[in-house]
Design brief:
alpha/beta; Aldehyde Dehydrogenase, Chain A, domain 1; Aldehyde Dehydrogenase, Chain A, domain 2; six-stranded mixed beta sheet; 22 strands; binds NADPH dihydro-nicotinamide-adenine-dinucleotide phosphate
Length: 488
């Protein structure tokens, strides 16, 4: 495993006083790696190196830049098992989920490789005769990225791929809980032939290295994923110096199940949405708003499903749910479980599973009869906890779904097309599903939310790509002479 930072195409061991300690969440006695953290001085060197490398990269035709991404898909596909294993060991998700995450990142690379041929401007008529007006897109320069631990391969890739194909250089701070996967991502790009200096990795802490990226005057844009509290702070700091920002932050995603929902389809979708990746997905289902007429049946099936899930180390082929990522998150989730027991009715789980004390495991948990003003109903828990609240029909479902400060994703289960379309229009989330789980995103589709979930441009799709570009409007006067035709 590479330890340390990657600056100007070389792996180095930073000399910071703080340590990065990468611990296996399935067995906390296993230290996967330990090394000194990067410092703000390392960020300064990384930005300087990125600036130099970017000047040449901006001149490389975008299709050629895209070919580097295409080669990265080939490398990543060849190294898929290695990537999945690293991801599972340090983040905790089980190997099938880890592999799925790697494949998702590969799809993002594929999409952006093709975008190299399609970075679009627009041609529009001028009001003036003999003037040709059009737009072009140019890279921003050096862009900063701050990423979390929950998708340590997919999120860095979905930020890096569009930034690179658009002609930028990157300074990235991954979560210090998942530096192994981040280093493998760098290796994939390196093996794919990305010129040195374009992807700089500084492995350190958010409150110094992260902040140094956000504050650096040569970092033209910052792309952040993490908590709402941190993200809004990043947004405010970057905005003060006029940098572009996109932040993808918290979620409290709801499924609304109407009386006519297909319960046989609904229950597996809820088990997947709530407990997949141990609930540590920004798109996880954390609330079920279920019509009173079917609530009893649904909760019963959910409880049975939750209790049957096999919790265990991500590398155990039989495991269906891995551990929580780190002790602080475990404490946070356990705190919400205790709170939930006071606020609602515990139906399944509610604590740590027996026999797995060496790791940071919790049980898949279902709370029923959750009042809409309960904290477990409103606050992001980021763990395998589903809160169920009964409703009477669509209108109440929409109102309750919207009664939180977040707005990432949502889903409705119904056979009634009118109800589904009303929900799509009125639910306050950036992504809406009909008859499928709240989770997931696709490379070609915009990803992001409303309210306190997101600020700035959507990620992925061409929107995500164009965030990393500056648009120029061009006026070419071919009338000849001293602008004889000038009417503006
Ligand atoms: P944070 O928001 O604290 O961290 C996300 C990233 O930001 C990390 O790389 C972190 O570094 C960095 N960071 C922290 N402080 C600063 C700062 N002042 N300036 C710049 N960068 C900074 O999330 P956590 O990982 O601590 O998780 C806490 C909660 O966040 C979770 O319980 C969950 O609710 C939410 N979350 C949401 C995610 C999503 O996908 N929407 C993803 C992950 C978390 P460092 O780790 O060194 O602090």
């Amino acid at each position: 495993m590479r330890t340390g930072s990657y600056i100007d195409g070389r792996w180095e061991h930073p000399r910071g006083e703080r340590q990065v300690r990468n611990v296996d969440p399935a067995d906390t006695s296993v230290v996967l790696a330990e090394f000194p953290a990067a410092t703000p001085a390392d960020v300064a060197r990384a930005v300087e190196g990125a600036r130099r490398a970017q000047a040449a990269w901006a001149d490389v035709p975008p299709p050629e830049r895209g070919r580097v991404l295409w080669r990265a898909t080939e490398v990543a596909r060849r190294r898929v098992d290695e990537l999945a294993l690293a991801l599972s060991r340090e983040e905790g998700k089980h190997l099938r989920e880890a592999r799925g995450e790697v494949l998702k990142g590969i799809a993002v690379l594929e999409f952006n490789a093709g975008e190299g041929f399609r970075i679009q401007g627009r041609t529009l008529p001028s009001e003036t005769k003999d003037v040709f007006t059009y737009t072009i897109r140019r890279p921003l320069g050096v862009v900063g990225m701050i990423t979390p631990w929950n998708f340590p391969w997919a999120i860095p890739v979905w930020k890096a791929a569009p930034a690179l194909v658009a002609g930028n250089a990157i300074v990235m701070k991954p979560s210090e809980f998942t530096p192994w996967t981040a280093s493998l991502m760098v290796e994939v790009f390196e093996e794919a032939g990305l010129p040195p200096g374009l992807l700089q990795l500084v492995v350190g802490y958010g409150d110094d290295v992260g902040q140094a990226i956000v504050d650096h005057p040569d970092v033209a844009a910052v792309s952040f994923t993490g908590s709402t509290a941190t993200g809004l702070g990043v947004y405010a700091r970057a905005a003060r110096r006029g940098a572009k920002v996109t932040c993808e932050m918290g979620g409290k995603n709801a499924v609304v199940a109407l009386a006519d929902a297909d319960v046989d389809a609904l229950v597996p979708a809820l088990l997947n949405g709530a407990f997949g990746s141990t609930g540590q997905r920004c798109t996880a289902t954390s609330r079920l708003l279920v019509d009173r007429s079917i609530a009893g049946r649904v909760v019963e099936a959910l409880v049975e499903g939750a209790r049957a899930l096999k919790v265990g180390p991500g590398t155990d082929p039989a495991a269906q749910m891995g551990p929580i990522v780190n002790p602080a998150q475990l404490e946070r989730v356990l705190g919400y479980l205790e709170l939930g027991k006071r606020e609602a009715k515990l139906c399944a789980g509610g604590g740590r599973p027996a026999g797995l004390e060496r790791g940071l495991f919790v049980e898949p948990t279902v709370f029923a009869d959750v009042p809409p003003d309960a904290r477990i109903f409103r606050e992001e828990i980021f763990g395998p906890v589903l809160s169920v609240c009964p409703i009477d029909g669509l209108e109440e479902g929409i109102a309750r779904a919207n009664a939180v400060e977040y707005g990432l994703t949502s889903s409705i289960y119904t056979r009634d097309l009118q109800a589904a379309m009303r929900f799509v229009e009125r639910v306050e989330t950036g992504m809406v599903h009909v008859n499928e789980p709240t989770v997931g995103g696709e490379a070609q589709l915009p990803f992001g939310g409303m309210k306190k979930t997101s600020v700035g441009e959507r990620e992925m799709s061409t929107d995500g790509l164009y965030f990393f570009t500056e648009q120029k409007t061009v006026f070419v006067n071919f009338a000849g002479g001293v602008a004889r035709n000038f009417v503006r």
